[in-house]
Amino acid sequence: MSTSRQTLLNSFNELLLPERFKDYGPNGLQVEGKETISRIVSGVTASRALIEAAIAQKADAIFVHHGLFWRGMDGRITGWMKQRIQLLLAHDINLFAYHLPLDAHPEFGNNAQLGRVLGLQADQRFGEQDLGFAGAADFASATDLARHVQAVLGRHVTLADPGNGREIRRVAWCTGGAQGFFESAITAGADAFITGEISEPQAHLARETGVAFLAAGHHATERYGAPAAAAHVAQQLGLAHEFIEIENPA
């Protein structure tokens, strides 16, 4: 089966409601390709490697979390940007990208899906634009939680442990580069906060507040939302869908 570009765009917009968010770049159709779409490839980032893999799979559309265009970036189409856009245009592939709307969706978003794979059920939203999730947990210590996250994601976890032996009864999380949400997570009553990245201030805050901070990787925490949302829409419209994982140490 196939559908039109506009129907696919409408379906993504109806699911993710991009108009609700103040974001760092354009959500929706970023590069226009062929009018008729039958096969979607999803991935985390619109890298050249993903575009080349989508071409090999004869995709008509790519759906990602990290698109090509960001607020404040250099607008010139040169170098790596030219190469990516040139491939999309040469093969007439549509590029759809949704950033914060994909983080926030209560079922198919990055945070909801990270909670699912970690066995955490959100009962609270917090932080800027309600992007953060929080819910009950049962871990004897921050170290036990870190071991669990590392085992599930298959990636080293950086743990800023306050060293107080605190049981983890409530966990907050926000995928990607959400280390700035740590204070909001503390205010929300979390015993531990999981995100993708850590900056210098978070280790001090962990020690001074007694709340553990876990950095589990930007890519590693955000590789679940795009395939979940794309698969849902593809099933609705009767389209083929494939998630392609591009290895990334981040």
Structure overview:
The chain is of the alpha/beta class. It folds into two domains: 3-99 and 224-243, NIF3 (NGG1p interacting factor 3)-like (Udp-n-acetylmuramoylalanyl-d-glutamate--2,6- Diaminopimelate Ligase, Chain: A, domain 1); 110-221, 3-Layer(aba) Sandwich (Udp-n-acetylmuramoylalanyl-d-glutamate--2,6- Diaminopimelate Ligase, Chain: A, domain 1). It is built from ten helices and 13 strands. The strands form three sheets. A six-stranded mixed sheet has the order 7-8-10-11-12-9. A five-stranded mixed sheet has the order 2-6-5-4-13, with helices on both faces. A two-stranded antiparallel ribbon has the order 1-3. The model has no long low-confidence stretch (mean pLDDT 98).
Q: Could you give the order of strands across the largest sheet?
A: 7-8-10-11-12-9
How many helices? The count is 10
State the helical fraction: 25-40%
Structural class, please?
alpha/beta
- CATH fold-type name of the largest domain: Udp-n-acetylmuramoylalanyl-d-glutamate--2,6- Diaminopimelate Ligase, Chain: A, domain 1
pLDDT < 50 stretches: none
Number of discrete domains: 2
Please trace the helix and strand order, writing H or E for each element.
EHEEEHEHEHHEEHEEHEHEHHE
Radius of gyration: 19 Å
- The CATH architecture of the largest domain is 3-Layer(aba) Sandwich
What is the end-to-end distance?
Answer: 36 Å
Name the CATH class of the largest domain: Alpha Beta
Biggest β-sheet description:
6 strands, mixed
Strand content: 15-25%
Tally of DSSP β-strands: 13
Mean of the pLDDT scores? 98
Shape, per Cα inertia axes: elongated
Query: What is the CATH homology-level superfamily of the largest domain?
Result: NIF3 (NGG1p interacting factor 3)-like
